[in-house]
Amino acid sequence: MSRTALRVCLLLLAALGRAGSEHDQDQEHGDEDVPHSSEKGPGHSHWSYEDREHWGVGYPDCAGTMQSPINIDTAKTIFSPQLRPIQLSGYSLPASEKLKLRNNGHTVLLELPETLAITGGYAQQYRAVQLHLHWGSPSGPGSEHTVNGHRFAAEIHVVHYNTKYDSVTEAMVYPDGLAVLGAFLEVGPRENPYYQEILQHLHKIQTEGKEVLVPGFNIAGLLPANMKFYFHYNGSLTTPPCYQTVKWTVFNQTMQLSHSQMSTLVMNLRNDDGKPLQNNYRLVQDLHRRQVLASFQTTLLSPKQTPSGSDASEAAEGHSGSSFHAGDVLAVLFGVLFAVTALAFLLYIYKHRSQNTRMDSPTKSKVIYTAASTENTA
Questions:
Q1: Which of 150, 168, 225, 377 has the CA that lies 20 to 30 A from 191?
Q2: Mind listing the pLDDT tens digit for each residue in 270-283?
Q3: Domain that holds residue 257
Q4: Is 127 helix (H, G, I), strand (E, B) or coil?
Q5: Where is 214: in which H helix or E strand?
Q6: Which of 36, 106, 201, 319 is catalytic?
Q7: How far is the C-alpha of 104 from the C-alpha of 214, rounded, in Å?
Q8: Is residue 198 situated within a structural domain?
Q9: Is 106 a catalytic residue?
Q10: Between β-strands 146-147 and 150-151, what pairing exists: parallel, antiparallel or unpaired?
């Protein structure tokens, strides 16, 4: 091999080594969507929501065609009866188990033990890693996903990774690697006891990098009680590095927080620049011909009916009621039609029996009634 060829090979190997190192750092310090150290190191990510339109420059996947969040147009969703209710396991934690709550400069993040898992609704099992929130400001809402163009006050994401992989860092680069459960938050009449388990500690972690240990509680209480109704699509992490490896579940029902609780979430934290941590949501991305599936019929839902509000008893626990679906309407219509048809038939029989009785006399032979053939007019 000539000296020139040898020099070229060495330069290529060095370039590949640097690329691999940068890729590893992106995996380790990707932000709230995956766990990472709160200490700033050589690979610390300095992206910000103010510069979100330019994320694709430093993180190529952020400019991909399977990005999240999206606007869910209920008129264009596809009803899929194959979508089964989401089932969770191990989500109720004892108070003796301490969980790390952290302000990472982009959001408030609660680390979760891997004993929490999604055991139903997906083809494979997914272990929990962490949950975090997205919100707006006193002047506007801040959910990431929208429904029929409607943005909700806030949104929770619970991040899981596929158990076929050894860790979330390994899983996050594979198409089936991650599963995120998302739910919308809105202001309601009562305090939500489950969210209070997080919100009551925010004053302790106001600045970036601060963390505190909080007692375990029923994490499932942060999500809708009814997990039958949801939207499903393939997308990405909503923050850099924006890997397009997330199977999204966005629940139809909203969770409710009191006005005071929502203010606590919006007003308490500061970002890594020392400014109020607000409007930490990404704008909706193009679908690029992706399909959004729904586990229920959505044709009769309006923007503010999806997700639906809660009744008084459910609001006390932070859960909301289900929407009135197209299937229910059809059932009522068929019931009414059946009742009308049955009544008409009985009146018809009664009328002809009366006529036959009047015609049945000694001077006349009995008339035998023969039903006329019917035509299928369907």
A1: 150
A2: 998 889 999 999 99
A3: 31-328
A4: strand
A5: strand 211-215
A6: 106
A7: 16
A8: yes
A9: yes
A10: antiparallel
